[in-house]
Write a structure and sequence with these properties.
80% of the residues lie in helices and 1% in strands. The chain is mainly α. Strands 1-2 form a two-stranded antiparallel ribbon. Helix 20 packs antiparallel against helix 21 and helix 22 crosses helix 23. It is globular, with a radius of gyration of 26 Å. The termini are far apart.
Length: 581
């Protein structure tokens, strides 16, 4: 009888322990906090339909259909209809404008960093007046290009679009107009300058985020007042990182906030040392896992299918091959002592940088300094590749669809992929960003596979079967939030339709809310990485330069295989899909 009571008590205790994990583990708190923001984004933006949205969408789609049927290329009317739909954004609402200001990192600056936080109305007026002539000149050139495009298009129309030479001339003229129109649009943004005092909003944001994360920390066992004090310091480092990244020179070199956050943190931790009162808020995984749950909402299956099978082949076939090959190379050839370091670097380099590294490190229980090393190398090579790859693609004349697919499959960070694609063209940007989105889907798959492999092969005990509970224990739970967010938002997007989804989800719930907060969460995580890392800890893992050799060799293989696969899929197997992009 006593034995039965004891066994029952053990079962009850285990059940109670597992239940308590729902509010005692940061993985689950990342899910709760992430979904809280996702729900808020829906509540805020879904009722904010742009005025006349449905009528404008219907009118634009009617034009698009008729133009697609009558012409063999994208006409002026076709582009104007697309521009009409592109202007429908829920972020243009009062709520959207306030949130954009409230979550603003800091403004761009050139010589005086104070202008990143404060600009008087008089200074703004001077800046606007200085930018106006450039905009007027750019707008005039765009108007001239539009007139020339109309003449070229009319010439092609007069011949029933049967003259290939006239068709080509029209396409060239329309492309020139689009390019100049884009430049005029960029110039116009510089005339939309007004005075600002960003400091008050940053203080407000710091308090909001401290409370937001502090509630979870308090329930997990850290007094909220200790976390609050330390968080203000970590937030200050994040602000410094964003400020450095927003410098015009740093922007031109592609050195983003992530690198600066780690550098500033490392300087502090390796000189004066990170103060003990800051450490309760140095919560790398807590911050970044919450951000990754939000990232899941940005992975929309409808967009993935827009490029279709070619994109899936580039992202889902090459990536596992590179990851496995790099891991085997590290173990068999380089003989890297730490398998966890090896697999973390392999996933970081082959999948999608920091996000994959965090998930993989959690699945294999890698040391924090191993994660720091992998992330650090990723950020360095990302900055280099986002500058060199577009330049190389232009220099050798690689088609922009192929170049976009190549960059999307090889450059690690999503933001860097978008920046590199935008440097080439809208088509390159679209393809690169979509390929990276398809690749991001693998975060959860890779984490699960690594958890299973580590249980079955790396840390298995001879004669002991692999336990499903052990795999579940090792599997990073926040990935479930990532997957569920992706499924839910993909479903909502599908129900709404592409056009309404663009206005209310793309340029509403995501760009106007979750993406803004995700950037801050990632920056806080990178600052925490630097503050928690000592070079002495990294030195042991960098002996012989093996991690660097592993990354370079793996990325070289990635570059070669991705380019070959992208060419085969987009130009040999599915050229009809490429023609429609």
């Amino acid at each position: 009888m006593a034995d039965t009571i004891t066994e029952n008590q053990v079962v009850i205790d285990r059940g109670s322990s597992r239940l308590s994990e729902l509010w005692k583990k940061e993985d689950y708190w990342a899910i709760w906090l992430g979904f809280t923001l996702l729900i808020l984004s829906i509540i805020i933006y879904f009722p904010q339909k742009p005025e006349g949205m449905n009528e404008k969408i219907a009118s634009a789609n009617s034009i698009l259909e008729s133009e697609s049927q009558r012409a063999y290329f994208k006409t002026i009317a076709w582009y104007q209809a697309m521009d009409l739909k592109a202007g429908l954004k829920a972020t243009n609402s009062d709520q959207g404008k306030f949130l954009a200001v409230f979550t603003k990192t800091s403004h761009s600056w050139s010589t005086n960093p104070l202008t990143a936080f404060f600009m008087s109305e008089s200074a703004a007026k001077e800046k606007k007046e200085a930018a106006t002539p450039n905009y007027e000149a750019a707008a005039e050139k765009a108007d001239e290009a539009l007139a020339a495009a109309k003449i070229a298009e009319n010439a092609a129309t007069a011949l029933g679009f049967n003259d290939e030479t006239k068709n080509a001339e029209a396409v060239k003229a329309i492309d020139a107009w689009r390019s100049l129109k884009s430049k005029a649009s960029s110039a116009k943004k510089k005339t939309s300058v007004s005075g600002y005092n960003q400091v008050k909003y940053l203080v407000g944001l710091a308090i909001v985020l401290a409370i937001f994360f502090g509630i979870g920390m308090h329930i997990m066992g850290t007094p909220i007042q200790r976390f609050f004090i330390g968080f203000l310091f970590v937030f200050f480092i994040a602000v410094l990182a964003y400020t450095a990244a927003n410098n015009s020179v740093m922007k031109s070199y592609g050195i983003g906030y992530a690198a600066w956050a780690i550098v500033f943190g490392l300087i502090i931790s390796n000189t004066i040392g990170t103060p003990k009162w800051v450490m309760p808020a140095v919560q790398t995984e807590y911050f970044i896992k919450t951000g990754l749950v939000l990232l899941g909402a940005e992975i929309l299956f409808g967009k993935i299918l827009s490029i279709g099978i070619p994109g899936i082949f580039v992202a889902w076939i090459v990536t596992p091959i590179v990851l496995i090959s790099t891991y085997i190379f590290g173990q068999k050839i380089l003989k890297i002592p730490s398998k966890t370091l090896n697999i973390t670097i392999s996933a970081d380099m082959s999948v999608c940088g920091v996000s994959a590294a965090i998930a993989t490190a959690a699945a294999c229980k890698a040391k924090k300094e191993e994660l720091t090393l992998a992330v650090g190398m990723s950020l360095v090579f990302t900055s280099i590749m986002m500058i060199l790859m577009p330049a190389f693609i232009n220099a050798v004349g690689i088609p922009h669809v192929l170049g976009g697919a190549w960059m999307g499959g090889t450059i690690d960070a999503t933001g860097a992929v978008a920046a590199a694609g935008a440097f080439l063209s809208d088509r390159a940007l679209y393809v690169a960003a979509t390929i990276k989105m398809i690749q991001n889907v693998l975060i959860g798959v890779i984490a699960f596979c690594v958890a299973v492999y580590w249980c079955a092969k790396v840390e298995c005990v001879e004669g002991q079967k692999v336990s499903a509970m052990e795999i579940w224990y090792r599997f990073p739970k926040f990935v479930l939030g990532f997957i569920i967010a992706s499924i839910i938002f993909s479903g909502i997007y599908q129900v709404m339709g592409t056009d309404a989804g663009y206005a209310l989800i793309d340029h509403g719930a995501i760009r106007g809310f979750t993406k803004l907060f995700r950037g801050w969460f990632f920056c806080l995580a990178f600052a925490s990485i630097g503050l928690a890392t000592n070079f002495k800890e990294l030195r042991e893992h960098f002996k012989g330069g093996k991690p660097l050799i592993l990354y370079v060799c793996g990325q070289s293989l990635n570059l070669i295989l991705t380019l070959i696969m992208a060419y085969i899929m987009f130009y040999l197997v599915f050229p009809e899909i490429t023609a429609k992009i």
